[in-house]
Write a structure and sequence with these properties.
The complex is a heterodimer of chains A (about 140) and B (about 375). Chain A is mostly beta strands and about 140 residues long. Chain A has one helix and eight strands; from the N terminus they run αββββββββ. In chain A, a hairpin with a 5-residue loop joins β1 (about 30-35) and β2 (about 40). Chain A starts with 17 loop residues before the first helix and ends with a strand. Chain B is of the alpha/beta class. Chain B is built from 13 helices and eleven strands. Chain B has helices at about 5, 30-45, 65-75, 90-100, 145-155, 160-175, 190-195, 220-225, 260-270, 285-295, 305-310, 325-330, 335-350, and strands at about 10-20, 55, 80, 110-115, 195-200, 200-205, 215-220, 235-240, 280, 360-370, 375-380. In chain B, the strands form two sheets. Chain B has a nine-stranded mixed beta sheet with strand order 3-2-4-7-1-8-11-10-9, with helices on both faces. In chain B, strands 5-6 form a two-stranded antiparallel sheet. Chain B starts with a helix and ends in a 5-residue tail after the last strand. The chains are: A mainly beta (about 140), B alpha/beta (about 375). The interface between A and B is medium-sized, with 36 and 29 residues. β4 of chain A pairs antiparallel with β5 (about 195-200) of chain B.
Chain lengths: ~140, ~375
């Protein structure tokens, strides 16, 4: 079951970010990494902002990370979300991917139990047509 | 030669201001608001439209604002800048206008803005700049990003919900002294805390207003400014900085690049925070005021909550901040930056009656854009400060 209802916007991959979303569909969290200077970057872009190299790799990560910050949305921002709030939006600082942080949701933690610093791991949320979104759950959870 | 002497400190001045004060104006388009503000600003300084040769504008409803405004106002600019970095755009324009005036590329610069955000439906006009890596997780743009910063500030420095509420209460207390402010009813800390939660930890009362509005400024070089009817507000310092686009790319959610824009503005002015009599901070949300008090050096990082709780920024306090009532209580048409400068000029002119900061000679106006992304700081002063 998806964390948010069906009918909300889904990714529409383009040339720059198809490798990221394709990896998601294989349930792999891969982050773009400069092949020359090793700087991780996200969102995917064709050029490294640190060294301007156009060569990159897609490094598979462990999918673990830490909640860097979070907020709890209390009312719907999309017609499909009626009845969904409260839900959280979290910034996850990934392990082993430099400074890269993902905006995502933590799916198994009620609003009043969310904490900055909480350890989380990716969970693959099916959004239909064989596509998956990287959401997160408590690492020490069930 | 000091850094100040080598810079363009004081070389241009704001000579005219226009503010439609129409916060709820059904039937008026964004261009109507802008045009009225431009007329007011030119009347204020006694210059004519055919003398304007520098045009600076940004609107959330137009992708080509310079073209639209030039056509509608009959301006044939020799210098134009439609830089769009969100609500801070107009202070970026100020820096650009300073440089263009100094270089002789234009003689009379008009910076202008108009919006019908409230009467168009009460929604922030969405700009064509999708964020596909955040949208599937349904943050509410832009408040969720500011809430993420607020949560991190609370976690890292012990800032409290009560201290955030005190920012809104101080803004309202100033608004009650400004007959032009849109929200002037009573507001207590308890009211803010009891307000509807929108994006935890920010409630509705932690958010700026949604209004219509139009604003404009006219700048000339200092030697011309002295011959115009109003006391010039000299631009002593200006600095800009750009950090990131998406909140996930902001290196530290508790420190903005206002640190850099402020440092640049202070260096040009040869002044520091202790020299500032009056402060305008772009308060789209209560957390903004705390972040910018810290980043602009009015207190140490992490101490703004306590500073605000002490009453310092409210009427009667030691550091008057957002004396028009701010975006929280005066007006917020979507891109508020120009209104910070207008209140700074009004204070330096000494025209603010009940909310006047006595003897205000140096005023700092700071604007923010995007999701704490672009920052711009201007320091204005009276003739006595040159």
């Amino acid at each position: 079951v998806s964390y948010l209802p069906e009918g909300t916007p889904v990714p529409s991959p383009g040339p720059d970010d198809a490798p990221f979303w394709d990896a998601c569909d294989r349930q792999e969290l891969r982050i773009q990494c400069c092949a020359d200077c090793g700087t991780f970057r996200h969102p995917p872009i064709p050029v490294c902002a640190a060294c301007r190299s156009t060569k990159s790799t897609w490094a598979r990560t462990s999918g673990t990370g830490t909640v860097f910050s979070y907020t709890v949305a209390h009312h719907p921002t999309h017609p499909a979300l009626h009845g969904a709030p409260p839900y959280n939006i979290a910034v996850i600082h990934l392990d082993g991917a430099g400074d890269v942080r993902l905006v995502s949701n933590v799916v198994d933690v009620p609003p009043d139990e969310m904490r900055i610093g909480m350890r989380v791991i990716v969970v693959w949320d099916a959004i239909g047509d064989g596509h998956f979104l990287p959401r997160f759950r408590r690492e020490d959870g069930p | 030669v000091t850094a100040r002497e080598a810079s363009i400190c004081g070389r241009a001045a704001i000579v005219g201001i226009g503010n439609t004060r129409r916060w709820n104006a059904p039937g008026r388009t964004p261009f109507d608001q802008l045009q009225e503000a431009a007329v007011l600003a030119l009347e204020d300084c006694g210059l004519r439209f055919d003398q304007v040769d520098g045009l600076f504008c940004a609107m959330s409803t137009s992708g080509l604002p310079v073209l639209n405004v030039a056509e509608r106002l009959g301006i044939k600019p020799t210098y134009a800048d439609g830089t769009m970095v969100g609500g801070a755009s107009f202070l970026f324009h100020l820096q650009s206008a300073m440089a263009a005036l100094e270089a002789g590329l234009c003689q009379v610069a008009l910076i202008c803005y108009g919006s019908n955000q409230l009467t168009a439906g009460g929604k922030l006009a969405s700009m064509p700049d999708p964020q596909p890596y955040e949208a599937p997780f349904r943050p509410r743009y832009p408040i969720s990003s500011y809430a993420l910063a607020a949560a991190r500030h609370m976690h890292q420095y012990g800032t409290t919900r009560e201290q955030l509420a005190d920012v809104a209460v101080a803004a309202r207390a100033w608004a009650q002294r400004n007959p032009d402010a849109y929200a002037r009813g009573p507001l207590t800390r308890a009211d803010v805390l009891a307000s509807r939660m929108v994006s935890d930890p920010l409630t509705k009362a932690d958010c700026c207003l949604v209004t219509d509005g139009g604003a404009a400024l006219v700048l000339t070089r200092a030697e011309r400014a002295r011959d115009l009817p109003r006391p010039p507000a000299y631009v002593l310092g200006v600095g800009v900085a750009v950090g990131h686009r998406q909140i996930s790319a902001m290196p530290d959610l508790t420190t903005t690049c206002a640190v850099e824009s402020g440092r640049r503005a202070y260096a040009m002015a040869g002044l520091g925070p202790r020299d500032v009599d009056h402060v305008m901070l772009y308060d789209a949300f209560t957390i903004n005021t705390l972040l910018f008090l810290e980043d602009l050096g009015f207190c140490a990082k992490g101490e703004a909550g306590a500073l605000v709780q002490s009453g310092a920024i409210a009427p009667g306090g030691t550091l008057p901040v957002n004396t028009n009532g701010g975006g929280l209580s005066c007006n917020h048409p979507g891109m508020y930056g120009l209104f910070t400068l207008i209140e700074s000029v009004e204070q330096l002119r000494g025209h603010c009656s009940d909310r006047q900061v006595p003897g205000a000679a140096v005023s700092l106006a700071h604007a923010n854009g995007g999701v704490l992304s672009s920052q711009a700081t201007a320091i204005l002063g009276t003739a006595a400060t040159l």
